[in-house]
Amino acid sequence: MDKLRQYETFSSVEKMDEHISKVLSHFELSKNERELLWLLSGHSVKFVGVSFLKLDSMAKALEVSKKTIQRALKSLSDLGIIKRIRTIRPVRGGFGASLTLICPVELTTREEATEPAPERSQEQSGSKETFSFKAFSKDIKYIRQQEIDYSFLTEFVPSEFIRVVKPFVSPEEAYSLWGKAQVCAKRYAPAVMDIIEPAVRAFKASVTAYKFNRIKKSFGAYFWGSLSGVFAYEQRKEVKYCNELAKLYPK
């Protein structure tokens, strides 16, 4: 297993989480792509940046088809965010398990080349104004450079979760933490409907551990571990409750 350290792409989990947060704010990814990236990061802790998750496990965790996962992986790979590697079996030979590497892609923005605008004829000047995609791209780059406050999160993050995390983290970090909670809930607690309260408990446990210097790697990795434990417990409770109801009210 130590040979797999050659594939590590980050020196620490904290740096990986920080990079992923920047990637999510830099690229316009789909919902499946964002959730898949967080899922991969949650399983890239032992060897930082290296995930062993199989396609079936990814699809099951996000409750989507394998084809959807394959499309998301291809999209992330085309952007340089991840890289898929097939290992070789050392004894029997042939291909072994596939690894997914989270790549530290350089997030740079290129300035659009400015060209002199051609003179418009009188006929063209009377035509309807068209939308300039180049101008729109520049506006987007400007928007990405601006700071946001918590009012921007109300459509994406529950207000109760915001209220708890607001004193401790920035809006961008709060958005990322809630994204982790959603992915973790799909994997470990598919039967649990209300995930806000367990996510809040996991966050409070992580903050407490951080205050008492009990976190060895990074806050993000510890938060994922707390989420996993809390959601697994809630899943067992929900399954037990459903089984008891089934005994009381058999079909």
TrEMBL record:
The lineage of its organism: Bacteria, Bacillati, Bacillota, Bacilli, Bacillales. Pfam families: HTH_36 (PF13730). SUPFAM superfamilies: Winged helix' DNA-binding domain. It comes from Guptibacillus hwajinpoensis. This is Transcriptional regulator.
